[in-house]
Amino acid sequence: MSDITSIHFLTFPNVSEQDLLVPWELFQALAWGFAHEGRHLDVSIGGFEPGPVATHMGTEIKTNRVLEADDRFDVLYVPGGLGCGAASSNPEILELVRKHHAEGRWVASNCSGVGVLFRSGILDGKTITCSVALARRLPTLGADVLSPRLAWHVDAENRIFTSAGGGTAHMSTVALVAQFFGSDSARGLAANWDSLGLLGGALLQADGPIMDTPVELAAAAQDSFEMVFLPD
Known about the structure:
CATH architecture: 3-Layer(aba) Sandwich
CATH topology: Rossmann fold
Structural class: alpha/beta
Number of domains: 1
Strand order of the largest sheet: 2-1-5-6-10-9
């Protein structure tokens, strides 16, 4: 039986809808299924300010929790978005990430949210993956980014999960479910959402597929966004 009973999805101004809501919805669906089996998984969403929170494309998202500095969860999930530039220098957010890691709790992230984890210091000496937009900048700052870059990477020893850009959000979340709750739970979830038939057993692996982005397109994404997502 998994020891994971709570997961919190962090919000902040200009968070990405996809990076936040895709994994949140999948974990909500998982929690709904668990409830019918007599199991409990608490899935919460919110930041340090009362909601609603404005996303980077203008949607307003209703939250269900306002964070306090001493809040703790089994899993803290930091999504990406254009707001990660500001989030990566937000002392409350960085300290929340640090404390979860220091206490042996899971910290997960996707897309530009990985830059927030990097600024917190918890990725020092850890092998990670990241979005194409940060795949050039992070190594220059000292991060150990997998090469070739992978769609996601589970570091079970250090309880850190990193995922590539928003396009990997669904797949990587299924892989995270497999890590926490086993392959049967992950397969059932993926089958219900019709990703199992598309991607099969790759969804259940601790390491995702190789991200084979053409060099010129990767450079264009990096030129446009790396300093937005992770400014000096």
